[in-house]
Amino acid sequence: MAEAQNIPAGSTTAGSIAVAAESTVATRMSAPPSFDVADFPVPHGREEEWRFTPLARLRGLHDGTAVATGEGVRVEIEAPEGVTVETVGREDERLRKAGKPVDRVAAQAYSSFEKASVVTVAKEAVLTEPIRVAVHGQGGVAFGHQVIELGAFAEAVVVIDHTGDAVLAANVDFVLGDGAKLTVVSVQDWDKDAVHVAQHNALLGRDASFKSVVVTFGGDVVRLHPRVNYAGPGGSAELFGLYFTDAGQHQEHRLLVDHDTPHCTSNVAYKGALQGQDAHAVWIGDVLIQAAAEGTDTYELNRNLVLTDGARVDSVPNLEIETGEIAGAGHASATGRFDDEQLFYLMARGIPETEARRLVVRGFFAELVQQIGLPDVEERLIAKVEAELEASV
Amino acid sequence: MATLEIHDLHVSVEAENGPREILKGVDLTIKQGETHAVMGPNGSGKSTLAYSLAGHPKYTVTGGTVTLDGEDVLEMSVDERARAGVFLAMQYPVEVPGVSVSNFLRTSATAIRGEAPKLRTWVKEVREAMDKLSMDPAFAERNVNEGFSGGEKKRHEILQLELLKPKIAILDETDSGLDVDALRIVSEGVNRVRETGEVGTLLITHYTRILRYIKPDFVHVFANGRIVESGGAELADQLENEGYDKYVKGGASA
């Protein structure tokens, strides 16, 4: 059986389509998934899943030296009628439904949290207002766990807002009952010193639809790991992401869609703009199509726009296919730069420099933003992108 | 009446062994309604003149003056020059991914005119201008210059010329890479703008071919970084027959 390893040495874009007897995504992890932090060795930085991450800036989340402080983050949940919000202890079984931590920091988060919040939408409830989760950093260290569970045929939108300053490691679980529809918008609008490492686990019931919109602007280090698993056939996942990486920031998005169930679809599209010295964006897009997953249809895309010198992108799409009986599978990754010649061209047509940059960045993100389907979120994103540009120019 | 005056212009570029002087004292005055053809061999500095007038950051002006109606052009940023009425149709327009032609044109027109054109009249204006240049309306939805053929790029440049109505139009080798049909369509576009009598045109070219479609009032021979001979349209005929040889050999020491 052919096997292809995908470890690009370069700094920009690489990808592979592997036909593997054994998943390279699974085998290249340092340890199998586990709820116990002791099952993971302390990373040294050369491991496949850590090699892009500046461990020294994780403030001890990866080596056990980070200890929760009283004032870590404040979580406020605002939910419309028909939604149950609970604060539960570690023993609650619903905290282990969606998936296990796959790396040391996620396991640390699971091993360290004291109380978790569980938000439940009753079956067949169709919410007209979003559930709003405000996670506001208070300057301390925190370990979090949140579960959002939709009963069969329920429909909901959840907006999770991260603001303030914190060192936060968390697991966020989304459990979708059969036929349920969930849209989750997770906005990382942290202050500049924040460190945020989180694993998002989505488990989709039969015919469920999951849409994730991840928006990362702030923070010193943000490393998110959205993962999708299917519990029954007919599930559909759309994972959209938008990031704007400024000087010195490290923003890492590692996605995994595990197609182990027939007739499910996934569509991944992440776009990022970078500007400033040592702005670093990492995008890892892993899609597995296991032997049982006949009729899978999947596509993943990552685009990066480098606005200035000194920024770096690592983009690694990775598709592993174990069955030929699929509807479609593809991936694309590209990193382009906004260069002086483009700027000259636009300015030579009377367009001032700030306006020229705005035009290019807005155009770059427009197509993605339109797919979000939530007008107030779309407007906010555009405004935020403009603010980022204003701040830089 | 708009007048662009170039006086004793010296321009350098940064080369491996330090700055290299490309323009060595250019004198040229272009008045509204006039068409000046600047012709010369490759490497004579014609394009450097065009890009220096538009303010490309690669070129450093080391001496001389450029004024538009008495205003100091060299003091202006690239966008200020464009808003003052200087337009450069580029030889190699760059791709701008993510920005549609229609968005680009409207943003540019808004900047040049000082206010956003009324949407309804604007759409009509663009459509008519595109139609005259035999451009498919679907063109407006493509990204600026992305995947354009050579002919499409040049039509797009002339489309901008027609919409932005500058005081001074600099056409940098607009004829290069065009087949006869495209050359005719593009030239007709330039002529429509010239016929308004409101633009001074600086037509930079290597070949005399485009001058069959666009009749210049003045022809200047450019060699070794300056204008070495000026005359009427008949000078172009002489170049057609004799080539640039005498200027390259004789001009180098002149």
From TrEMBL, chain A:
<dbReference type="Pfam" id="PF01458">
    <property type="entry name" value="SUFBD_core"/>
</dbReference>
<feature type="domain" description="SUF system FeS cluster assembly SufBD core">
    <location>
        <begin position="137"/>
        <end position="364"/>
    </location>
</feature>
<dbReference type="InterPro" id="IPR000825">
    <property type="entry name" value="SUF_FeS_clus_asmbl_SufBD_core"/>
</dbReference>
<dbReference type="GO" id="GO:0016226">
    <property type="term" value="P:iron-sulfur cluster assembly"/>
</dbReference>
<dbReference type="InterPro" id="IPR011542">
    <property type="entry name" value="SUF_FeS_clus_asmbl_SufD"/>
</dbReference>
<dbReference type="InterPro" id="IPR037284">
    <property type="entry name" value="SUF_FeS_clus_asmbl_SufBD_sf"/>
</dbReference>
<dbReference type="InterPro" id="IPR055346">
    <property type="entry name" value="Fe-S_cluster_assembly_SufBD"/>
</dbReference>
<comment type="similarity">
    <text>Belongs to the iron-sulfur cluster assembly SufBD family.</text>
</comment>
<protein>
    <submittedName>
        <fullName>Fe-S cluster assembly protein SufD</fullName>
    </submittedName>
</protein>
TrEMBL record, chain B:
<feature type="domain" description="ABC transporter">
    <location>
        <begin position="4"/>
        <end position="249"/>
    </location>
</feature>
<dbReference type="Pfam" id="PF00005">
    <property type="entry name" value="ABC_tran"/>
</dbReference>
<comment type="similarity">
    <text>Belongs to the ABC transporter superfamily. Ycf16 family.</text>
</comment>
<dbReference type="InterPro" id="IPR003593">
    <property type="entry name" value="AAA+_ATPase"/>
</dbReference>
<dbReference type="GO" id="GO:0016887">
    <property type="term" value="F:ATP hydrolysis activity"/>
</dbReference>
<dbReference type="InterPro" id="IPR027417">
    <property type="entry name" value="P-loop_NTPase"/>
</dbReference>
<dbReference type="GO" id="GO:0005524">
    <property type="term" value="F:ATP binding"/>
</dbReference>
<dbReference type="InterPro" id="IPR003439">
    <property type="entry name" value="ABC_transporter-like_ATP-bd"/>
</dbReference>
<keyword id="KW-0547">Nucleotide-binding</keyword>
<dbReference type="InterPro" id="IPR010230">
    <property type="entry name" value="FeS-cluster_ATPase_SufC"/>
</dbReference>
<keyword id="KW-0067">ATP-binding</keyword>
<protein>
    <submittedName>
        <fullName>ABC transporter ATP-binding protein</fullName>
    </submittedName>
</protein>
